Amino acid sequence: MNIEIGIIVPVYNAEQSLHRCIDSILTQSYSIFKLILIDDGSKDNSLNICRQYQNSDERVKVYSQNNSGVSMARNKGIELCTSPYLCFTDSDDYLEPHYLQNFVEGISASPNVDMVFQGINRVFTNHTEKIVPKQGFYPRKRLLDGISDINQYSIFGYICTKMYRTEIIKRYHLRFNKNISISEDRIFALQYLEYCNSLSVINRSAYNYIIHNNGLTAHKRSYQEIKQAADINLQCAQHLLSLLQSQRFENDTRRMYIMSSFGYLTELFATPYSFKTQKAEISSYLQLYATWLPLYKPTNNYHKFIKRLLVTPYKVCTVVVILRLYWLLKRIKQKLKHK
Question: DSSP label at 220?
């Protein structure tokens, strides 16, 4: 099969990892692709490195823009892509030689497929966690069940696991949300699924995703930022449920929202907002989502603590006081530790 794939790589101050990333793309076993490197205003040598590759390989195209963020860089890549299919890679990650071939096999088995999905290798400092989903094909009426099958592995939100049909993205003007920097990958995928007629899942993994102990992935996010991302995710999923029925996906959506909400509730109390604000937020939260709480089975001890508080019939004021005391004691301990 001779289908060209566009590979979009946002680049920002990535000179330390860029050679490894690009070399792993250019040595793919499937060689019919266009590599689109979007330099997002790098201050290091990244742009020069990109141009060196462009000068030595006609499959490489480079575009430079003022620093606008990863979502805008990906959007520019979409705009420039002319290949029938496209996928995304991050400049600090790298590929195994058969990454593109895995996607092509998904198309070969189902020529009209709109999304092909494969697993991921999460690379930690001392070990690598290989996550491989179960193989399957899902027509539109079973699309959401397919996402639920993938959700068992907690890897649907990774942008690098999916190959998209470019024509669908451009026809429906799908773009990454430039106003959020958390979970934007998952939101984009959910929006794409509205127009997707089939999904092919390949039981292989060839993307090496580097887990950082610092940097963007460890960036502390505000209550408003986490809540906004969780709410948009929920809206996109509920819109899909208005088009396609799946009790499994509905339960998944509610469970994952509760899990995300514990993240923003943590920031609501870790950052000292006023008692009035915290009370209003907890009251509203319980009115909207109390019946969803049993769907989430936390393994994290702090999340277990939050869930116990929220499912116990305490008054809202009591919940707020307990959480305020918890975080006050935590801050005191941290200060004493650093003395």
Answer: -
